[in-house]
Structure formats: C-alpha cells, structure tokens
Amino acid sequence: MPVVPRRLGTTIATAAAAAAIVALSAPSAPAAVGAATRNADAGHAVFAQTNDLSGNQIIAYHRDRQGRLTQAGTYDTGGRGGQLTGSVADHLASQGSLTYDAEHGLLFAVNAGSNTVSVFRVDGDRLRLRQVVGSGGRFPVSVAVHDHVVYVLNALDGGSIQGYELDGDHLEKKDDWYRCLGLDPNATPQFTNTPGQVGFVRGGSQLVVTTKANGNNLDVFAIDHRGAPSDSPVVTNLPGAVPFGFVPNDRRGIFLTEAGPNALATFDIHRDGSARQVAFAATGQAATCWVVAIGDLLYTSNAGSATISGFRASDGGRHLAALGNTGTDPGTIDAAASSNGRFLYVQTGVNGIIDEFTVNHDGTLTQFGTAAIPGGAGSEGIAAS
Question: CA angle at residue 149 from 146 to 152, to 5 degrees?
C-alpha cells in the first residue's frame, strides 16, 4: 500500500482544511442584468457545482464584458454530491468534476453520492437538464470529452473508467469501454488515495488518468478509432509525486501538478503510452493540486497557501518561467478561464467565493472582484464559456 510522506500528509491535510466551496441556493436571473446586456453577452457564463450531499446543483453566473459575474440561476442535477473520507472541504479531490464541452454546447456534472453524471444543454448562462446516467462505478469525480467520446473517472472500489458515445445531448454507455484501475481500495485517507483526473491527449488517441498517492502513477490508455480503450494502460511511475491535475500540451503530452513536491511539471507522452518528464518548476507553495491553461500561460491552485502560481511555458513546454504568486481568498481549489482568455475565475472554499482576476499581458493577475457561491463548504467544480 502506498505510503504518503509525512510532509505530504501534512500539506494535503492543510489543503483540505483550507479548501471548501460552493453549496446550494437559488435565485433566478437577477433584474440587474437587462435584456439588452444579456443579448449582447449571451455566450458568456461561468458555472460552479455545489456538490451538496442532499442534492447537487449548478450555479450559473452571467459574465459581462468587464468579466464581472452576476448570479443568473440555480439548476438541480438530479443527483447528490459526495464526500471522500479524510477530506475537510475538497470533498471530491479531483479536477474535471464539472466539464464544459464547447463543441457540442454541453455541460457534464458528476453526482458522486448517486454514482451518476448529469448532462446539461448550455444556452448562454442558462442550462437545461437533458439526462442523468449511471457512471459505471462508484463515486464519479472527473469527466473528459473528445469529439463524440466521453469518459468518466470513478474514484472508489479501486478506481475505474467508463466510456460513452455522445449522441446529440445524450450519453450511450458502452459496457465494453469499462476498465478497472486496480488501485488499493483500502488505502487511506481516501482523498489522497483516489484517482485525480481523466483526460484526453494526442488528439484523442490516448486517455490519461492520475492516481495521486495510490501508486503515484500516470496511467495511459490507447483509444481506438471507435473510442474504445486498450485492455490495460501503460503505467509510468512517479515516486512521491502524487500526480493530481493536468491540462494538455498540444499533441506532445501534459502539464501536470504534483502535490508531493508542490510543483508543475511538463511530460511528453509518447505514442506507446510511456511518459517522460521534460520540465519541472516548484511553486514554493502548499498543496499544488489544480492547473488551468490560457495559451502559453499556466496557473496552479495552491490550496494550503491560498495562492495561485503563474508560469509561462516556452520551447514546447520544456521551459517553465515563474511569474510569481497571487493571493486568493482562503482555500484555493479549482479554476476556469473565460473563452477569450482575459479573465481567470478561481474557486476558493473556506468562505465559498469565486475570485475574479484580469489576466495581464505579462501573465500576472489583477483581482477586480468576487462572486459569492450560495451555501457553504464542500463544493468543487467550475467551468467557463
């Protein structure tokens, strides 16, 4: 059974204690957002998931041209949120629990407590629930989409992935696209020993899963022309790294957060599924777990330090230049960027707040406001259009 180093255990425990967010509540579109303004900015929205244990919801926010958020509506997912043992606020301990598919105009939300996934049709800052489907396992925590193929990562019972084919705005479960990850189901605490994210790389031909402290591995499945995964993954072991969240690096591989050393690393992923680290940059912060990309800019969320660390990637990701750290409200967790790349929205958990930042030309961040998430702690998942 993997052993979490004492320093890491302290770091992640601090992160959990510092990272809460989002919970439920309701108002519909506020009168302050006039019809003319709404029509002009119809495609601009940010969505946050409450992960409420009694009934999961999505809070929709209208984004104006200056980047400011105004709550526009609350939508039931038809499922319940969940909580991993050992977590204090980051109850899913994952990246990609709320995933926006711009190509098809869909939003996917996990219902960890119900073992289901909800599919919403997105119309500006409005949502329409189209389907609630079984996740194919226990405790779904992350969703990946490429073209007409969708994969869900389940965290419990040793971890698993389940594949689906997208037909319009409905998911068709493919029973033969299920794979067990074979992790230790009894490793504790759960929130450090469950898989962290699933995502596509190399143009959809490979699917990557991070295992965090339960193996410290990158699992890479080959995906065939139908969308089916290889029988087993190619495994790259990263001792002590605790690989958590990632974003693609074009067709080369990924930018990966490592919660063990608190760092951002670049990995090339080869055609055979093997991975090789080609760059590494420590954040100097605590609980570096999430990452978001805006062009060649990368921002990691450091839950234990209440900061965002900025980096600029060059030479195909082989060089990571630090841009400094920016303070946030307590409990920095997931983040999302606006589609135009001008704004960054950071979930912070202790007080249930989304911090709003302008992305400056030099990559530094300037905070210009906040948006409250109704309810309280325990939520996770943010997406922007």
Answer: 95
